[in-house]
Design brief:
Layout: H1 2-29, E1 39-44, E2 60-65, E3 68-72, H2 78-87, E4 97-99, H3 111-117, E5 122-126, E6 135-138, E7 162-165, E8 173-177, E9 181-184, E10 187-193, E11 203-211, E12 214-219, H4 226-236, E13 240-246, H5 254-267, E14 272-276, H6 281-291, E15 303-305, E16 321-322, E17 338-339, H7 342-354, H8 356-359, H9 362-371
Parallel strand pairs: 3-4, 4-5, 5-8, 12-13, 13-14, 16-17
Antiparallel strand pairs: 1-2, 1-15, 2-3, 6-7, 9-10, 10-11, 11-12
Helix pairs in contact: 5-6
Length: 380
């Protein structure tokens, strides 16, 4: 009997040991599904180096993150937009939704063709009274005069409670947004209004996607102000991983440009910038100097992977930092080497001592990224 019990126990133990191995082999035999891409493809802009796309003033980008495909704006010229989208392999039928940043023509020309290919596609756009995307107003918005005869009065003197205004796209599925809204899990339409002369009261949506690495923020023209938009995004998640799009500094003075570049880097701690469209050539230069390797070239046709920093590949125009004053080799840069001062070195050394990388193991960092646990405050 004791022998039988021993034999039975041995068999059970063998089965228990074999089960995990069998499961492991089964897992290996099953093909693993490919991870969904996390990237932004610039479909429309006036600068670029991809010969397959046409450069033109305007903006459009395809955002692929979290298994979603989102079109942000649709360019200035429908024919150019369609050509560029085809060149980059964009299938409008697979889009989850569109976000139109604002009503300026250099951001919306291709929308009709997108809706022709995908008629039921949801479009998010800013709400404006009498706006091109459609809106509504209470009929009390106008003054009444009871002394007039009915034929001289709007709606014979008995208007509906709410007046509905049509959009420029017939039978379209447009949802107009008036305040910052989570339009899908982890995906936000940030709604702000410009207070700048020239675009006063212009409403604009920006797209903020909350990822494990932080907010990925796309801006169309930043008419309300790039810092205000980043501030609104930081209210969702203070870690800003990427900012793409137009910063609306194309004619700004150098002092204003420098102030904003430093603020984005030091005040808002933006990790990576990928400016385009109406950001402006002087601002490209200022941001490149301010962010160094965290400035990402985002010309028309570029496909930018998220979740990582990418060096701005600008050939001889890149200034490489040096830890000592002087000049580097002519093959490395044009002009003076960008030396780090003693105060710069002290700052970065202090950050290195107090950063989460220095005080917590990789497993904890993975858990924070996966479950969005706030990072510990750095100790002085």
């Amino acid at each position: 009997m004791s022998f039988a019990r021993s034999l039975f126990g041995a068999c059970v133990a063998a089965l228990l040991l074999a089960a995990p191995l069998a499961a492991a082999h089964a897992d290996q035999a099953q093909p693993k599904a490919a991870a969904s891409p996390a990237r932004v493809t610039v479909l429309y802009d006036a600068f670029g180096r991809d010969p397959s796309v046409t450069k033109d003033w305007g903006f459009a980008a395809l955002v692929e993150v979290g298994g979603r495909r989102i079109l942000f704006d649709s360019g200035n010229n429908a024919a150019v937009f369609l050509k560029n989208a085809e060149a980059k392999g964009v299938d409008f039928g697979t889009l989850d939704f569109v976000v139109q940043s604002h009503r300026h023509a250099d951001h919306l020309a291709g929308l009709a063709d997108v809706l022709k290919a995908n008629p039921k596609l949801k479009v998010y756009a800013p709400r404006e009274g009498f706006g091109v995307y459609g809106s509504s107003l209470p009929s009390t918005f106008y003054r009444r005069n009871e002394n007039l005869p009915p034929e001289q009065r709007y709606y014979d003197g008995t208007p509906p409670a709410v007046l509905e205004f049509g959009s420029a796209w017939r039978d379209s599925n447009i949802d107009v947004i008036e305040e910052t809204t989570e339009i899908a899990p982890g995906v936000w339409a940030i709604a702000l209004v410009s207070d700048v002369p020239g675009t006063l009261e212009l409403r604009e949506l920006s797209l903020a996607i909350d990822t494990p690495e932080g907010i990925v923020l796309l801006v169309g023209c930043s008419h309300p102000g790039i810092e205000k938009i980043v501030e609104a995004a930081a209210a969702i998640n203070p870690k800003i991983h990427y900012v793409f799009g137009g910063f609306h500094l194309v004619n700004a003075k150098d002092e204003a440009i420098e102030k904003i570049a430093v603020s984005l880097r030091d005040t808002w701690k933006v990790e990576n910038v990928a400016p385009g469209h109406c950001t402006g050539e002087p601002t490209f230069e200022a941001l490149r100097k301010a962010f160094g390797d965290r400035y990402v070239y985002a010309g028309a046709g570029e496909v930018l992977e998220l979740g990582k920093s990418r060096r701005a590949d600008l050939g001889p125009y890149v200034h490489k930092a040096s830890f000592s004053p002087g000049r580097a080799a002519a093959s490395e840069l044009r002009g003076e080497a960008a030396a780090l001062t003693d105060s710069d070195l002290a700052y970065y050394r202090a950050r290195a001592r107090t950063s989460p990388d220095a005080v917590e193991p990789k497993m904890m960092k993975w858990l924070r990224a996966s479950f969005r646990i706030p990072e510990p405050e750095a100790q002085p």
